[in-house]
Design a protein that fits this description.
Number of strands: 9
Strand content: 15-25%
Order of helices and strands: HHHHHHEHHEEEEEHEEEH
Radius of gyration: 22 Å
Distance between the termini: 27 Å
Shape: elongated
Amino acid sequence: MYLSKNLKYLRKLKAMTQQELSQRLGLKRTMISAYEDGRSDPKLSSLALISEIYDVSMDELLFWDIPQKGRKFLQKEKMKILTVTLDVDGEEWISMVGQKASAGYLNGFGDPEFMENLPQFRLPNLSGQTHRAFEINGDSMLPLRSGTIIIGAYVDNIINVKSGKTYVLVTESEGIVYKRVFNYIEEKGKLFLVSDNDLFKPYEIPILEVREIWEAKAFISNQFPDPRQEETPLTLEDIGRMITDLKNVITKTTE
């Protein structure tokens, strides 16, 4: 078991003292020292609380060498190999996933026959990466409205997700979503998704539920923006406020 070394590592990672942890657990500080030295083992109730404080499963806490291997969820940092369609010259097409095809895409994105039956097209100035097009649904990302087509470049490593940029995510629980993403993979194993429309609250999603990530590179819409109705573009200050709100959400989830 790796309990003792994991406890010490996670406590320091959270910048907590033994006294602070002991107060959270309702124990004496000397008990924390004994746990970290391997002289004593926590009761099951204390283990459950430690797992909650550090946002880590009991299995990982007990049987995974976190200091040596890193968090267990990071083992999925490499995304899967894509199924793509090619023309007669071996060039990749951009496959189009419309709203009606979204549900089928969750089960068929690895099926060559399913992918071949999707609409295919090509755009200039998009080369060197694999791209895919997704038709978004809803108004959570105004001024881009429902029916807008987002062209995304495939992200093959979740560590490369850049906080504050927009992505299309193919997920097990939420389906296909287009959001502004903040990367808390290394700290919490989660992504925080924010809508540009303030009427929609931000939420988190575990990285283990994410099947594909596509960085937004362009969009196609048959609705031209109306400057009288279009919201003010996001500024650095707006993004700063988003980060502050997300930190508040993270703090609440760890309390």
